[in-house]
Design brief:
Number of helices of chain A: 9
Largest interface: A-B, 42 and 39 residues
Structural class of chain B: alpha/beta
Distance between the termini of chain A: 13 Å
Oligomer: heterodimer
Strand order of the largest sheet of chain A: 1-2-3-4-5-6-7-8
Helix content of chain A: 40-55%
CATH topology of chain B: TIM Barrel
Shape of chain B: globular
Strand content of chain B: 5-15%
CATH class of chain A: Alpha Beta
Largest sheet of chain B: 8 strands, parallel, barrel
Number of domains of chain B: 1
Number of domains of chain A: 1
CATH superfamily of chain B: Aldolase class I
CATH superfamily of chain A: Aldolase class I
CATH class of chain B: Alpha Beta
Number of helices of chain B: 12
Helix content of chain B: 40-55%
Order of helices and strands of chain B: HEHEHEHEHHEHEHEHEHHH
Radius of gyration of chain B: 17 Å
CATH architecture of chain B: Alpha-Beta Barrel
Order of helices and strands of chain A: HEHEHEHEHHEHEHEHE
Strand content of chain A: 15-25%
Structural class of chain A: alpha/beta
Largest sheet of chain A: 8 strands, parallel, barrel
Chain lengths: 227, 256
Amino acid sequence: MSPSREEILSCIDYTLIKPDATYDYVKKFCNDAITHSFFGVAILPIYLPIAKQELKGSNVKIISFVSYPMGNNPIELKSHTAKLLLKEGVDEIDMVINTSALFSEEIEKVKSEIEEINRIIHREQKLLKIIIELPIIGYENANKVCEIINRAQADYVSTSAGFKSFKPLGWRPVSVQHIQFLKKSLDSNIKVKASGGIRTHKQLMALIKAGASRIGTCSASIIRRVK
Amino acid sequence: MTAITFNHLCKIISTSKTGPTVSRADVVKYFKRWIKLPFASFGTDLYNLPYLKKLLTEADSKINIYVPISTYPIGGETIESKTAEIEWAISHGATELDCFLNRSATKSGDWNFVKKEIEEIMNAAKGRIVKIWVEFNHLKPSEILQVAELSIDGGAHFIRAGVGFGQVQRYSDIKLVKDVFGDKIKIEVGGGVRDAIIALNYLKAGMDRFACSTPENIARTLEDAQNRLWKNEVEQLYKRIDFIIKTDPSRKRVEA
């Protein structure tokens, strides 16, 4: 059975990642999320003060990022930012893993950052999504990272930061294969967020059908055709 | 006849190795290649900073190290995160801090916020070289001048124009800042300087430094670039480079 319109809208993280949106644009963006009953807005930390104001009293959750879009910040700084975001009242945090550590064969650094941030966020009973940049790191590396995430019991794995300029490095829009791979590699209680390059209704439906529980997209128009 | 050599031009080039797929080994390999030349600075991300620092220390090199502050290449972090990054970077050997401004504030004309942010950055930098980083292409000329004025008032050393990834800065924007503020602030062009022809054109417009991740292309095209100019133009640019080097605040540390 196909998911209902409400079910689809309630899995959308409406995403704002361009860094130079005006205050008015951010306000409108937040109000669009309310109008469409999206699950939440996923926004850069600089937009939090406006989003908190605009979304007060609504059901739309606030999601922000740690070390976006390049996860190469050291663990001390990632923890610091995560704590600041929690203090600001975010409901969920999407953290990009340190892919350079992975390519430097320092997977233990990736392990400690995932464990540490997970601890900080779960202490406040909030949710952690781990952005693993699957198209860039490849399936072999992703397998190792999934093992770490299974052990740490993070809440979600997100496929990609969706930063298109990383295309020469292997970035691609999220695919059904990515979702199927993660569903297979992760414990059943860890959910999958599809993100990066989701622009059409067809993509959206295929990703949900493949098992994505959350969709990150900056394109509100893709829900126009959702019945 | 005066000619600009690559060794000379190097002194106004910042070169960097960074990216989500760049490993520690890549960073070491890249900078080993350039370490003997007198570059203005070497740059990498915060993860690779300690490894770059170690490499330079072992080679007894005083080349400056710069890092992006506020998570390259978006710059979406709050002031509190930025100041923490600056402190961490300084304690791990960074001597130049390329700090993204809150570009939502600049686009919204919230100049009080921008002023405060520059103040906080300068306080955290404790005398290190600060470059205020914006994308000129996303700003109107009036906004560029406002950012430049606040950067000068705040005591920043450079404005860095451009985040790379294919963004090319307009010569007219560089010239505008220089026409209005002269040498009160230095301008680094960040990204898009793919060969020496482009580099010399930016120099003519008033650029003081440029970031480049393919210095070999600059070296390869430098002679050709000069052949395209009149002799007196080359002489003028040579003198300009000399002036830039002599007045570069980053060099004080290197020459000390």
